[in-house]
Design goal:
heterodimer, A: alpha+beta, Alpha-Beta Plaits, four-stranded antiparallel sheet, two-stranded antiparallel ribbon, 37% strand, B: mainly alpha, Ammonium transporter fold
Amino acid sequence: MLKIEAVLQPSKLDAVKDALLEAGIEGMTILEARGHGRQKGHTEFYRGREYTVDLLPKVKIEIVIHDELKEKAIQAIISAARTGRIGDGKIFVSRLDEAIRIRNDERGENAL
Amino acid sequence: MRVLNTKLGSEDFMPSRCFKLLFLFIFPAHLAFAVAPAISSHAADQAPATQAQIAALQQAVQNAQSAGDNAWMLTSAALVLLMTAPGLALFYGGLVRRKNILGTMMQSFSMIGLVTVLWAVVGYSLAFGHGNLFIGGFEHLFLRGVSLEPNTDYAATIPEQTYMIYQLMFAIITPALITGAFAERMKFSSMALFLSLWSLLVYCPMAHMVWGVGGLLNATGNHIPSLDFAGGTVVHITSGVSALVCALYLGKRIGYPHTAMTPHSLVLSFIGACLLWVGWFGFNAGSALGAGPLATSAFVNTHFATATAAIGWTIFEWFHNGKPTALGAISGAVAGLVAITPASGFVQPMSALLIGLAAGFFCSLMVFQVKTHFGYDDSLDAFGVHGAGGTLGAILTGVFASFVINPIYGPGVPTGAIDGHWSQILNQLAGVGIAWGISIVGTLVLLFAVDKILGLRVTPEHESVGLDLSQHGEEGYDFNA
């Protein structure tokens, strides 16, 4: 059981969501987030004063999947989210101990 | 009728002349048709019948003009109220951080309540009563004698209550403009007390000096004829300069200028600025105090100057920072509205284009360079736009005022430098100097007093939480509700 977290450009959210559904991954959680990597923000001007905005709006997708779906999920996200420019985001994969369905107390992969 | 007031120019020169023409040329024609049968059939009744009919027609013509003027003046009063709320409230509200939007909007809105009551009780009398050179008297206390009949000192064709309510709208927006300087850090109670007192001790005397009967700076008085059609000195210099004093006295917001304090919604500011533009037609064209040609002139000038000022600020910013911003365009528009205000009923349209362009460049320079150089935290640029723009506009009024538009000194008598009357610029400078002086002294005294009584600033904790929660116990945006 794996947890995949992907930080994306907000404009790529719909494409990534569709690609994941196509890959057979049905559950997901979307978080609105702010952050930066090496890209570091941009500058804005308000009445002549320059502001550096280093935390940019991002969205974060969290999915939990069976181990064998790992590559399929990663490829789905990459193909939908990649523009080739700085700021496309990152994918993090981690192993997960347990999942519980609140409705009926199902455990493990059955709960996904 | 001797003109007693700058704002009265239209009444004296335009409509009354029209009325005489109407009377001389059109009236006899009507009379001929109307009276002809009477002459043949009732020769004996001829004289009294004609007299009565003349009187009736005269009354009808007067009523018609009064109705037309009153309709425009009531509309203008509503337009000027629209400038304060929602116009200014949205403009300023969008420029502050999210946690301060309600506090900022309430500062403007509360002026509508407070100044209205003060105006009814004593303010109108202090501004427009007969008094001395500096301030009006107490004869209109509680609006005594302010009836539905015209007051010929000010506006001969509209009920005095129309004039009173129209002037009230000016008295409301002027202190509201100051709030931009101390945004995000002043206690609501102190703000309310300070601006209420300010309205009586700074606004009323200045309005009396410039527009009141016997005022020191009244353009048609015998002292220093300073031209201010709609409030360049009375409204914008007083509010802008007092704003600067407030910014200096209260000090900077915590974290300024190192922490980013960017506007939380330029969309709100955009809507607010556009409402200000529309409302300003009531402010300037309404200052003709009638629906005659002078109102048209002020309307056209107001629009022209605003357009070029928006362009001027945008060009300056484009060169300065590489991008033409929306905030720059709307700030420029407001600067143009401010600068044309004293000139709007005195100058020709091409002069208005120039005044606007100058204001766009000058005010952006003040905001971009001067504020940064001196480091004061005039948070929403009340001084940079209203103080600087008002001062520039007042001086340029002396340059461009022309008897072609408004023969305030008499038909054909040179008015501004453009007519050859260069000393008008000195009169304007006197008006500017007095407005700066009364604003600096009055504001300092009042801030000192209110500081002693209530304290001026919110606590650092409250400043960090924001005015919405700390002063009003509510939030502008609750996305979980």
